[in-house]
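Continuing the series of single-chain predictions for the mutant panel. This is the parent chain; the variants come on the following pages.
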Amino acid sequence: MQHRQFFVDDLTASGIEFPALGGTLLVVRREENPNLDWELVLQTREQISIDHAPYDLLMSGPEGSFSGPAILVRSDDTSHVFRGAGDLGGFAEEDFDG
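Parent structure:
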């Protein structure tokens, strides 16, 4: 298994802008699965109440910009966990070597 973490300081989810404190995008490649697993955990400065539903994420941070479909799986209005539900744009296999 290989994994890589990226700091995220800007998030838009299907047009909703999040006043982010920061978060972590975790990308994992498992030998038994050809598809990447990814998840974003983001803290916000203000409370944002959104539905547990699918969203198209646009994320950026000091190491680059990423995008992809995800589902909000947990939220307490200031901490939000999105699970990737498809390809992660902006990530290349070579990024595991970095």
